[in-house]
Amino acid sequence: MQNRKTKNILSDLIIYVILLIFTVFALFPVIYVLGGAFKTNSEILTKPELIFSTKPTFNNFIKAWNADNFNVERMILNSIWYTFASVAISLLTSSLAGYTFARGKFKLKKTLFAVFTSLMFINVGSITIYPQFEVLNAFHLNKGLAALLVMQFFGIGIANIYLVRNYVKTLSEAIDESARIDGCGFIGIFFKIIAPLLKPLFATLGILAFQASWNDYLMPTIFTLTVPKQRTLIVGIMALKSSGEGATNWNLMFAASSLALLPVLAAYTFANRYFVTGLANGAVKG
User: Fold this and answer.
1) What's the confidence (pLDDT) of residue 2?
2) CB of 74 within 8 A of CB of 227?
3) Structural domains in the chain?
4) What confidence tier does 99 reach under pLDDT thresholds 50, 70, 90?
5) Which pTM does this prediction carry?
6) Residue 265, Cα to own-chain centre: how many angstroms?
7) Which of 129, 216, 245, 251 is the most buried (most CB within 10 A)?
8) Nearest 5°: phi and psi at 109?
9) pLDDT at residue 174 tops 60
């Protein structure tokens, strides 16, 4: 009995050590950026091995906020409305599609879902950017964040659809029958019955969509090249790279990046209790 307890303690200790190592590796870039936000640029360039400054300063935040080519207020507003619009679009399209595949009855449903699911394993990277841009250009929607939102609306979030479908399939179909007796149609059942039950999963999908949209750099950069007033905060941070004279202003970029981290951390903290629950329930085999 004593040997078994000793083995259990050792196995738990090994697991905790491994998890601690992975946690350190995962958090190190964030900690390095936060530490660099309080360094001078010369200290970052001459002593890159130091995580924290020997003489921390808040001047980096003041300089970044007041930089001529870094309109913080406008960029934050652009990021906020673009991110929340992206989250709303993602939740609406993925939940409706997942609900349709779970409860809908139409020909080739399984085949179509299998085709959609197979796309999860195909990653063509940035190859699709040019054709997508040309399609929007044909409709004169190739400028600004609104054009990017249109493209997202007609996109297919395969992983999100898969999670919603599996979550809905765990719900009893008896509630659908009861709603039909009361006069609800297919869409009415979704908005009045199913959607309220998807709150834990919505929190999970919302956090993932929020993180992806807030930190998106490539697509907002492309679509705001000709409309700099619509730049998001992440796109604007790169403008700080050459905002001074001589060397790259890593200190200002680190300071601005630290500010950009706060909304994502706040969103995860707010919906933390729903995140793992929604992810686990959505991953259940349907």
Assistant:
1) 59
2) no
3) 70-282 (1.10.3720.10)
4) very high
5) 0.81
6) 11
7) 251
8) -65, -45
9) yes
